[in-house]
Amino acid sequence: MFRLFYLLIPLAFAILVVILFERRRLSDALHPETAERGIEPSGPEALAAPPK
């Protein structure tokens, strides 16, 4: 039974980390108007953007 928890704890942590990072990336993709307000883009589009 305890072996199950040894697997579930890292799995839950990994899922939480992915959700947090993807939430920000998807927010940038779904709401591009944030770039107009001067908020820096993140993700692949940040690499393609020319430096200011």
- Report helical residue fraction: over 70%
Total beta strands = 0
Question: Taking Cα atoms only, what radius of gyration do you get, to the nearest Å?
Answer: 17 Å
Taken from the alpha-carbon principal axes, the silhouette is: rod-shaped
Q: Extract low-pLDDT stretches.
A: none
H/E topology pattern: HHH
Structural class: mainly alpha
Terminal Cα separation, in Å? 55 Å
Share of β-strand residues: under 5%
The main β sheet shows up as: none
Query: If helices are DSSP runs of H or I spanning 4 or more residues, what is the number of helices?
Result: 3
- The averaged pLDDT comes out at 74
Describe the structure.
This protein has 52 residues and is mainly alpha-helical. The chain has a domain of 28 residues. Helix content is 73%, strand content 0%. The mean pLDDT is 74.
Q: In brief, what are we looking at here?
A:
By secondary structure, this protein is an all-alpha fold.
What are the defining features of this structure?
52 residues, mainly alpha, 3 helices, 0% strand
Lay out the secondary structure.
Blueprint: H1 2-30, H2 33-36, H3 44-48
